[in-house]
Fold this sequence. Notes:
Strand order of the largest sheet of chain A: 2-1-3-4-6-5-7-8
Helix content of chain C: 40-55%
Mean pLDDT of chain C: 97
Distance between the termini of chain C: 48 Å
CATH superfamily of chain A: Thiamin diphosphate (ThDP)-binding fold, Pyr/PP domains
CATH topology of the largest domain in chain C: Rossmann fold
Oligomer: heterotrimer
Low-confidence stretches of chain A: 307-314
Number of helices of chain A: 12
CATH topology of chain A: Rossmann fold
Number of strands of chain C: 16
Number of domains of chain A: 1
Strand content of chain C: 15-25%
Radius of gyration of chain C: 21 Å
Strand order of the largest sheet of chain C: 3-2-4-5-7-6-13
Amino acid sequence: MVSLKELAQQEEKFLGGHRGCAGCGATIAARMVLLAAKEPVVVGAATGCLEVISTIYPYTAWNIPYIHSAFENVAATMAGVEAAYKAFKKKGKISKEMRFIAFGGDGGTYDIGLQALSGMIERWHRVLYVCYNNEAYMNTGIQRSSATPYGAHTTTSPAGKKIPGKLQPRKNLTEIVIAHEPVYAAQSTIGYWNDLVTKVRKALDADGPSFINIYSPCRLGWAYTPEKTIAVSRMAVETCVWPLYEYENRRYRITLKPKEKKPVTEFMQMQGRFGHLFKWQNDIPIKEFQAEVDRIWERLLKRSVEGSEITESK
Amino acid sequence: MKKEKKGWKEIPIGLVLEGGTSKKFETGDWRSDKPIWDPKKCTHCLICWIYCPDTAIIIKDGKVQGIDYRYCKGCGICAEECPPKIRAITMVREEK
Amino acid sequence: MIVARTGNEAMAEAMRQINPDVVAAYPITPATEVVQLFASFVHDGVVTTEFVPAESEHSAISACVGAAAAGARVMTSTASQGLALMHEILFIGAGLRLPMVICLVNRALSSPINIHCDHSDSLASRDSGWIQIFSENTQEAYDSTIMAVKMSEEALLPAMVTTDGFIISHGMERIELVDDAEVPKFLGERKVRYSLLNVEDPITLGALDLQDYYFEHKRSEIDAMNHTLPIIEKVQKEFGDRFGRYYPIIDEFMMDDAEVAVMAMGSTGGTTKVAIKRLREKGKKVGLIRCRIYRPFPKEAMLKTITKAKVLGIMDRADTLSTLGGHLYSECRSILFESNKRPLLKNYIYGLGGRDISIEEIEAVFDDLLMIHKSNKVDKDIVYYGVRGE
């Protein structure tokens, strides 16, 4: 168990003065991830909100080594940094322990960055990939990604007269990553800082690739007032829209079971991006979303029996 | 804050930037609403500190000292998340 | 040591002796062998390189950027579509002023898909800010690969050494290797100006420039390219002093008294030299200008050279698809603009997609140029030499 008093002794590695929107969930995620790290870290970011708002020349919010190269390749770029570190360590040119973290939004991870992430895990680079999931391509002005939930309004899946928002379910990237059998993978969110920090520490201790998918509400894209960012992320967990679980030693474990599973409408009502669904000619989109959430939750419950092993014959 | 911007021969090559320079960019003037912290009510649980997107809660030796108004954007998360029984932070309209 | 090696084998050999910190690569015909051979060096423990078998060329070059930013000496190898897939990152690597070397095997760009030699792949990246060297033969490919590491690290611009696909890459030649121990001595350690692994002095690499800074950063990069030629000359001289093989910026062959000349890059240079020897025996005053360093373009030296002949046939193994003909042709026309002495120019687009160019065909080009010299008139500015239906 981590305490805030203990975390408060850490040096801040992600500083104020960045250009994130007031109440930006992604910056809270980045700050928490870096506070969790005990060893020195080297960070890479994909093109996207976090990268743009934190590094407008000549200002940078990162008080640690940081690289941005392009949009779809942060996993590959950090794989290269880690390879250089391994090379130097083997030659005795460097002895300091350090950790490598790649940050990508759902855009740069679920979609355009999927290949590089897959390759990085498969080659077993010791990099923690953090996806700050705000469920759309936010930096370019709120366009749908494969992470955008069912029925949500975005500018490329708008709430229209004929089609009420995005009509495909969310891609389950965490499961895709787990299929690679990395050392550690997890879902977390900013509203449960202890869950997030604990998971980051486990991931950084993993001797191989690790992945954390952090639900990071975006007040602009999701349309709610900024002070609600943490509350929205908690509601996502209480409605099981975003289950908090981890994959460790080839086992699933739900890390937070809501006392009472609330209907998804309680999550949706907090945000303007779902508003149109409550005025739609029928409740089919809402039912679809609820069905998807229920299906994934049930499957997780089954897998997450304490002590159960997922795999295969020896 | 307004300085002469450097010419191309004076800036480091390859876009290299020394870390942490965002400290010099004060986002405090973005605010419409401003958090006011009451030290008498505060129990130093540090919840506001961990949830601030802009690292604008000043702490020392594990205790809250105040708000760093140079960076605070007035998002209101600190006031919202301060435990309901404590309510040590309230949002007021920024005076201009 | 004298050995028999193909172009790919020679470049892999150079990579082995260089023993870079990191190699991140993806296979593509006809460069695959370079990667394969290097992988066996790694797996046999012959090198101490950290090998990253990337899942695409885009990831390969991205890993190279990351590793170079972390202070490593980095190399990779690719061709054609692979280089095209790396395209956006090439600009980034140059913009971030990161040294690295690509052993590039020249292969035609799709469509149509073709695995054979032409220069469309490397020339399509001529504006990326990379140093580009075109080798005529295996010896030059080997030597240039070693020199390119040093050039890149001193200029702080990435470099690609090109060889003609299948013609040189798979052609066996007799070459002389430098001793294993001499290569690290020649190169020294990479002088790292800044590194991501320096956690005490953290840096941010790859920030976003708004309108107020991009131009300054680019101007700085342009300045670097403008001042790279002396660095290339210096490294070439050092190489020659140490190992006895001197390379010029421009390879001139029998140009001193040439009336007409051909300009070419790559293996065609070698074929042309044979054609020249034959024609010289018949008393014809012909010469070759082989452009070896293509980027940075050696403006002054090239102007001096091309004004030697009265007629210049520029053979381009790629087309700019712009109505302006080939790359060398348009660039030479450009540098001649204010010159008082101007040879007559004719552009021969040839060899696309590996279409062979023979000694006899080059002799015919010279005869064509001699006719132009006689009549003092160029019949057609741009011709497509060797294509059926013309």
